Fold this sequence. Notes:
The chain is mostly helical. 80% of the residues lie in helices and 0% in strands.
Amino acid sequence: MDELFKTASRTSAQSLPGVIAKLAIATEWSELEPGADGHPWDFIRGVLADLTALTVKEA
């Protein structure tokens, strides 16, 4: 997972789904970190949900 996170953090998103994928990777990674509390991850998960919902509406 660490290698995936490092690669995603260094790779520019080329589309809205790419941004969503990067946020999904970051939020999944945060759940594995013992020091990652709810802030700012709860907010970021909310943004991820919003972007995902908006993308589905556009499809």
